[in-house]
Amino acid sequence: MAANKQQAPRAKSLQTIVVINSYFKIKEKIELKIIIHKVKTMKLTFLIVGSAILTLSCGKTSTEQEIINYKNNSDQLIGQWLLEFSKNASIKCVMENEPIDSLPGEIKNTIIHKLEIKAEKHLYKQLKLTHHFTLTDSLIGDLNLITLKKQRELKEQRDNGEPFWIWYNANCEGKWLNISRPIFNEDYTLAYFEVSTSCVNYLCGHGGKSIYKYENGKWIAIENFDNFIS
Predict the structure, then answer these.
(1) Are 83 and 141 spatial neighbours (Cβ–Cβ below 8 Å)?
(2) CA separation for the pair 81, 216 (Å, rounded)
(3) Which residues sit opposite 194 in a β-bridge?
(4) What is the DSSP secondary structure assignment for residue 186, as one 8-state letter?
(5) Rounded-to-integer distance, Cα 209 and Cα 70, Å
């Protein structure tokens, strides 16, 4: 009997230890699950944030590359054309033209057809890229650039009845060149732009639209259309 009485407290102690061990094991499992859940949540968060950063980064790089491609091809095309033009022309000035924000439906369809543009959205992207083209000194050579600001000043003089032609005669000998910002197809192998010459009295001039093709490292004229002489 005495032995049984001594074993009873021991049994209770063992049961208590078992219960305590079970409690801590369950607690550890719960804590482990919580930790695993937090780790998974953090991984998912990092993945989402990383993907967003990568997407933004790639988008920015892509846009910058598109601008570089457009500017490089525009500089080569227009620079080459101006160099050839200056060899045979006596014109002293070239107009800085506005970016192309929109096109009449007929011209738009003509450009898409002649440049073999596959997706119309590419054309709209090209129109936005025209904002990044500038007639620099290295492109125009010895020609005088009539900036957009100067054009607005001269237009204001004309509208006010002032002798705006004095500046044209003094700086451009009364004649100037207009050349539009170019538009390219998807792979920059075909290009469209417009060229015209004008006189201060608007009684002389000529021009038209051109399609150029990139072959063997240079741009070659393959079509001129809608030409006019006044």
Answers:
(1) yes
(2) 16
(3) 209
(4) T
(5) 19
Strands, DSSP E only, in 74-174? 93-95, 144-146
Q: Which of 226, 230, 191 is nearest to 208 (CA)?
A: 226
Other Cβ atoms less than 10 A from the Cβ of 135: the count is 22
The answer to whether residues 224 and 208 touch, using CB atoms and an 8 Å cutoff, is yes
Which of the four pLDDT bands, split at 50, 70 and 90, describes residue 48? very low
Written as six digits, the tokens of 4 are 């049984």
d(CA 124, CA 53) in angstroms, rounded, equals 27
Rounded distance between C-alpha atoms, residue 168 and residue 62, angstroms: 42
Contact 171, 142 (CB under 8 A): no
Beta pairing, strands 144-146 & 175-179: unpaired
Average pLDDT rounded to a whole number, residues 48-64: 55
H/E stretch holding 184 reads strand 183-184
Contact between 143 and 94 under an 8 Å Cβ cutoff? The reply is yes
Q: How far apart are CA 188 and CA 70, in angstroms?
A: 8
Residues 148-190: tens digit of each pLDDT? 999 999 999 999 999 988 999 999 988 899 999 999 999 999 9
- Give the rounded distance of the alpha carbon of 160 from its chain centre: 39
User: How many CA within 13 A on the CB side of residue 132?
Assistant: 18
Residue 113 CA: distances (Å) to CA of 107, 148, 181, 199: 10, 31, 18, 32
Distances, alpha carbon 195 to alpha carbons 61, 110, 153, 159, 205, in Å: 33, 16, 23, 25, 11
Q: Output the six-digit token pair for 99.
A: 């970016």
Q: Could you tell me how far CA 41 lies from the centroid of its own chain?
A: 37
